């Protein structure tokens, strides 16, 4: 007897298809014939897009891995001044969007900026007398992305190091390995899956970025999509560039999963003892403090201080009603995205828990793929089907009732919400799946014996037990949506701007002082949720010290 899918599985399947439409729509352009614009780009700018994207991925991968692993190992294994502060503060750069870092440092380090001006005044130099690194370059972008995204590696590596037993380290020491050799041959391989996952997240964010690379004048696929769509008006070329970028993202996911599957590292003992901590003194202690303070200073403290100085001394000429409208737009969009994302992610995660069919598992994977898809790709993938729907509806209404409906979805807030729901479904699902995993399956069985269906069980039993996971998922999605730039920039209605769009527009016009208020608001909104979530996560981990 064949198992008929229930209402929960059907609902999850419909949600999965809706979430997958943008991705599938973009991939469909791979099979369409190339136009003149695409062939022209292939011979001129496309090699530059490809090379710059590859260099960014290699550089950011190395930078985030080094920064995340070094800080995580010091926090877990050593005691030094400021350790307990750095344990949670090292995640604060996640509150600062990469494009805000680009705006701040491009102004701070340019020829007329305070750093080079101070150097010329101090040493009596003039233009051409000295060399200074160029921030508007691939190397500058790599450094900024590395300090912006290393917390992904830090959080996962820290957890992986804590969960390792001292027995494994002891075994290596008895075989004659020193502390350094034990780290590289035992601790690091055991943490490799977590580190690979953290680096993959950082690289996905790098691929998804538009604002930073556009401002730093580093041509990548993301900037090429925007130029093809808005500057040249060529939707086909933009879609084919988006398809190429999507293949990059999917290839990255495949490499990461293959890497974790090809080599597995397990602890050979079930005995667990906490890792020893080394009390550093003297120069070593202050060196550890400096290593942890440097990425925090570059990635959060200095840019926040510069923005605050701009906001206090120069202010925003558009402060007033315009600023509050921007804040309202940003908050409303972020709240709508958080609500719909959490609601839909709950249904998919609950269906994956209840339904054992491979179809539901594939639906969950398909819905969770959006985080690997850059916002520019999702925007292109959404605009085409929305325009087709609006045109078909308008034609149908004209033929039947002689009424034009115009554009209902295209160029509306609904498009932004849809894009962000697709983009941030993954972090929402991850938080909920972790919360559902802590609920014993026996509760579901007891509910079924009392005659309750899946939806009633979810509403009356699981929802109260998932309050913490639901709140965490909503906070994560809210903060990510407040920072999202490319999807909002490409899909926003006429005369509808958000804080992210305002920051981009003003910074692009070299009006950083005016952009500081909007940028600082985005950072401030992200700080409190990140602090709360990080400290709660650290307290929940084994080995947490006070």
Would you kindly provide a written description of the structure presented here, covering whatever features stand out?
- The protein has helices spanning 7-28, 36-43, 46-77, 83-89, 98-109, 114-123, 138-162, 166-174, 179-208, 211-215, 221-231, 235-262, 282-313, 321-354, 358-367, 375-401, 413-423, 425-437, 441-449, 454-465, 467-483, 486-491, 499-508, 512-540; strands at residues 78-79, 278-279.
- By secondary structure, it is mainly alpha-helical.
- It has two domains: 1-25 and 314-498, MetI-like fold (Orthogonal Bundle); 34-312 and 509-546, MetI-like (MetI-like fold).
- It has a two-stranded parallel ribbon.
- The longest helix is centred in the middle third of the chain and has 34 residues, at 321-354.
- The termini are far apart.
- The model is unreliable at 264-273 and 542-546 (pLDDT under 50).
How is the secondary structure organized here?
Blueprint: H1 7-28, H2 36-43, H3 46-77, E1 78-79, H4 83-89, H5 98-109, H6 114-123, H7 138-162, H8 166-174, H9 179-208, H10 211-215, H11 221-231, H12 235-262, E2 278-279, H13 282-313, H14 321-354, H15 358-367, H16 375-401, H17 413-423, H18 425-437, H19 441-449, H20 454-465, H21 467-483, H22 486-491, H23 499-508, H24 512-540
Parallel strand pairs: 1-2
Helix pairs in contact: 1-12, 1-14, 1-15, 1-16, 3-7, 3-9, 3-13, 5-13, 7-9, 8-9, 9-12, 11-12, 12-16, 13-24, 14-15, 14-17, 14-18, 14-21, 16-17, 18-21, 21-24, 23-24
């Amino acid at each position: 007897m064949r198992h008929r899918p229930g209402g929960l599985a059907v609902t999850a399947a419909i949600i999965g298809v809706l979430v997958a439409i943008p991705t599938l729509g973009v991939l469909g352009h791979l099979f369409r014939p190339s136009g003149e614009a695409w062939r022209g780009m292939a011979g001129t700018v496309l090699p530059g897009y490809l090379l710059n994207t590859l260099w960014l991925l290699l550089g950011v991968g190395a930078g985030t891995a080094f920064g995340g692993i070094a800080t995580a190992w010091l926090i877990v294994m050593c005691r030094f001044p400021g350790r307990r502060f750095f344990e949670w503060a090292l995640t604060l750069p996640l509150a600062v969007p990469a494009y805000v870092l680009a705006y701040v440092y491009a102004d701070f380090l340019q020829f007329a900026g305070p750093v080079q001006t101070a150097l010329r005044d101090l040493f009596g130099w003039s233009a051409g007398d000295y060399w200074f690194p160029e921030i508007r370059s691939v190397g500058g972008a790599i450094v900024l992305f590395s300090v912006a995204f290393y917390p992904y590696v830090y959080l996962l590596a820290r957890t992986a190091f804590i969960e390792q037993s001292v027995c494994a380290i002891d075994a290596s020491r008895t075989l004659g390995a020193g502390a350094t050799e034990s780290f590289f041959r035992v601790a690091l391989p055991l943490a490799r899956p977590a580190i690979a996952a953290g680096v993959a997240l950082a690289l996905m964010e790098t691929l998804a970025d538009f604002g930073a690379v556009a401002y730093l004048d580093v041509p990548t696929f993301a900037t090429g999509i925007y130029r093809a769509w808005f500057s040249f008006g060529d939707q086909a070329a933009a879609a084919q560039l988006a398809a190429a970028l999507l293949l990059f993202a999917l290839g990255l996911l495949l490499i990461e999963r293959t890497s974790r599957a090809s080599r597995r590292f397990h602890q050979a003992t079930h005995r667990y003892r906490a890792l020893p901590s080394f009390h550093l003194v003297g120069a070593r202690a202050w060196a550890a403090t400096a290593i942890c303070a440097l990425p925090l200073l570059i990635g959060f403290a200095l840019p926040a201080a510069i923005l605050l100085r701009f906001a206090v001394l120069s202010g925003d000429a558009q402060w007033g009603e315009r600023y509050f409208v921007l804040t309202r737009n940003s908050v409303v969009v972020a709240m709508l995205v958080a609500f719909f994302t959490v609601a839909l992610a709950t249904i998919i995660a609950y269906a994956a828990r209840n339904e054992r069919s491979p179809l539901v598992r594939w639906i969950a994977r398909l819905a969770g793929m959006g985080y690997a898809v850059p916002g520019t790709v999702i925007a292109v993938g959404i605009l085409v089907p929305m325009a087709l729907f609006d045109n078909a509806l308008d034609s149908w209404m004209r033929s039947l009732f002689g009424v034009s409906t115009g554009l209902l979805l295209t160029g509306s807030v609904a498009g932004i919400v849809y894009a962000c729901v697709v983009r941030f479904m993954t972090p929402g699902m991850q938080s909920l799946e972790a919360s559902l995993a802590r609920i014993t399956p026996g509760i579901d069985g007891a509910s079924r014996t009392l005659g309750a269906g899946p939806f009633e069980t979810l509403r009356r039993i699981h929802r109260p037990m998932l309050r913490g996971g639901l709140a965490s998922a909503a906070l994560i999605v809210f903060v990510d949506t407040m920072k999202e730039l490319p999807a909002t920039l490409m899909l926003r209605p006429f005369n509808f701007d958000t804080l992210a769009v305002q920051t981009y527009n003003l910074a692009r016009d070299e009006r950083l002082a005016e952009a500081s208020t909007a940028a600082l608001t985005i950072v401030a909104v992200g700080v409190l949720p990140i602090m709360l979530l990080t400290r709660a996560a650290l307290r929940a981990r084994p080995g947490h010290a006070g």
